[in-house]
Amino acid sequence: MVSAREKGPILPGATIGVLGSGQLGRMFAIAARRMGYRVHTLSPDADTPTGQVADHEVEASYDDLDAVREFARRVDVITFEFENVPAATVEAAAQIVPVRPSGDVLHTTQHRLREKCFLRAHGFPVTEFRHVRSRDELLSGLREVGLPAVLKTAGYGYDGKGQTKISSPADIDRAWRALGGQEAILEAFVDFEREVSVVAARGLDGSFAHYGAIENEHRHHILDLSIAPARIEAKVAREAVEISRAVLEELKVVGVMCVEFFLARDMRLLVNELAPRPHNSGHFTFDACLTSQFEQQLRAVCGLPLGSTEQLRPAAMANILGDLWENGEPLWAAACAFPNVKLHLYGKLEARRGRKMGHLTALAADVETARNDVLAARRCLCAQKT
Ligand SMILES: Nc1ncnc2c1ncn2[C@@H]1O[C@H](COP(=O)(O)OP(=O)(O)O)[C@@H](O)[C@H]1O
Ligand SMILES: [Mg+2]
Question: How many independent structural domains does the chain possess?
Answer without folding.
Answer: 3
